[in-house]
Amino acid sequence: MLGGIESIGKIPELRNRLLFTLGLLAVYRIGCAIPTPGIDTGALASFFAQAQNTIFGMFNLFSGGALERLSIFTLGIMPYISASIILQLLTVVIPYLDRLSKEGELGRKKITQYTRYGTVVLSLLQGAGTAVWLEGMKGPAGEPVVMNPGPAFIIMTMLTMTSGTAFIMWLGEQITERGVGNGISLIIFAGIVARMPAGVLSTFSLARAGELSPFKLIAIGIIMVAVVAFIIFMERGQRRIPIQYAKRVVGRKVYGGQSTHLPLKVNTAGVIPPIFASSLLIFPSTIASLANFPGSEYIRNALSPSHAIYNLLYVAGIIFFCYFYTAVQFNPIDVAENLKKYGGYIPGIRPGSKTAEYIDLVLTRITLGGSLYVAAVCVLPALLVSRFNVPFWYGGTSLMIVVGVGMDTIAQIESHMLSRHYEGFLGRQKIKGRRG
To answer: Is 9-194 a domain of CATH 3.40.190.290?
Structure first.
């Protein structure tokens, strides 16, 4: 392991890529500390101290704490993620986008361009909504959060936050092109990891104060290590369907005849299902928190992460969106047609519709296991908070993102080192990312 880390410095290109990546991530973290003009930061901090279980708490997590400071990066990369998801869903229903997705590099660039346009539009809308919401928000003592409300503040906030999101999107693209790893994923990774030291310090503070026994502290550490290992195991898990290609004679040459496999990931949908499910559940509780109406208190209590109703609905939503997003991402009919076109078949299964039905059956079965795995990891934080009194949110979507991005980034570094005949982090054993 240490030898692999030392080898990084011997590869100039890899060293420069890593330094470039770390430099841009540092720029992102600095931007998260620059507040939007016209905001009373003290009143805002008091509000967010009571908003951790609302939709603002979730956005604050993905923005790396930028939302609670109302920084220039308040919207974070969420508009880009939302635009990407919308484009993926529209690809299924709009034939033009479906044709673009099958045109290779040119089509991919065109879809990326549409995603950028969608990001700017969503950022402007969210910036306007945030500005209007801020004008009506007051601190615990009744002091206004916005010092000079009005149209000028709304326009300034829209432009500031949209520019911040566009800049973050540019940072992510630069990291992907000239750095190491996926830039957008690393920016989310940096935002989540930046909030972890505070949670760890608060845990040790509780232990020193006697509120957490040494036994519970050790048990929490063991659970953390076990959960990370479980996530790594499941993210790398796949069902391999054997594929056989028939021999074809073209002139004097024989093509095909080899055996390969079709890998189906256990968790094809990734972290999208818990994001969708939590957004749907947190939205009603946020509305109930901002407006007082009959039954609003019951809705706030029932849809808090520590309540059983919330967790049951959360698990059901994750399972539903796992199947839904897997169906959007993976089309068994297209796979079966491509296999038939190039002379491939599954042994014992007739090509064409029968192959599509078989792939769909296998995918349905493994998606059930994948959805239960995602649900278990995402419900874990509520159990740790209620049973062990853990003072920070460990698990869920954030942990899956951190582990998955870490695996992919290390796998890319490993491939750089092995391509230049250096040993990797684990010597002769190659590290594999989620794509294996």
So the answer is: no
